[in-house]
Amino acid sequence: MQLDDQLNLEIAGYRIALDSSGSLGNICFVSHAHSDHMRAIRNKERRILASKPTFALAGVDEIDAREIALDGVKIDMLPSGHMLGARQLRVEWDSQSFTYTGDLKLSESLTAERAQVRETDYLLLEGTFGNPRYKFPDRAEIYERIASFVSKNYNDGHIVLLGGYALGKAQELIAIVNRFCGIKPIVSEKIHKACEVYSRFGVRLETACVGSEEAEELMRSNFVAIMPFHQVNFELAVKLSKAYRRSVYTAVATGWALTTRFPVDEAFPLSDHADFEELLEYVELARPKRIYCCHGNEELLSHELSKRGYDAQPAAKSEIQLHLEVR
Ligand SMILES: [Zn+2]
Question: Which of 52, 145, 164, 248 fits as disulfide partner to 159, beta carbons 3.0 to 4.6 Å?
């Protein structure tokens, strides 16, 4: 078993590209439907390992992952909790196990399957928020804060704009607004299409697509809209306020709200990723012999894990190939 600096895993004569373009890999694992992880999914020459919701969200023909069997290698795709369909890859070969987390979140959410943690010999761990300064509040508490921001401003007759990543975060915001505020928000076409896939996989979301008759009707009064993150700011609020002659309140939802200011009234630290403590919790449960860190904060997370007695090092920045021990 061998892992190179481009996150290609070689195992039993196979090469599995982990969320990469798979230029060398004959098999590609696509952990979830965010564009930075999905480069390989439309490549018809590669064999793709991905969940059914990920294929559906990518808008490509579904290929049953179970068709891919590797001689002598046991493959499991475990929920990673990051968004609908997000999976970790766990492989077992020659009585050794290797797990790649993909993007990970342990806390339970309204719209993603709960993450599963299994013991593993080798762990390739994402470290987006792999810094002790990142500690997110309890998810239920953030839900409450978002719901009260929306309800208060909406009930006062104002327009409310919420911004979040169009895949995953927007659907979670819609679920919050549906369930806790009893409001059907107006959404962009892209967000609406993703919601249809969520509904197909059992996560029911109520939305009105912008441009539809229903949305036009809702916009005759004050309304709530959920939009891609980068579109929501004070500039848009001023424009809409003039056009609709109402006050407009804006908010975004992102883990980076802990450390970054955004041009909106409120920024809620609602993240699709594990914070530092959740990453530690994952490692404690998975009990790996060795950890490789990837996807941001690799150096710091490796350092923090090493301080706590784990054998940890950055994966992607390593110039040499990382040879996993073969017993
Ligand atoms: Zn992601």
Answer: 248
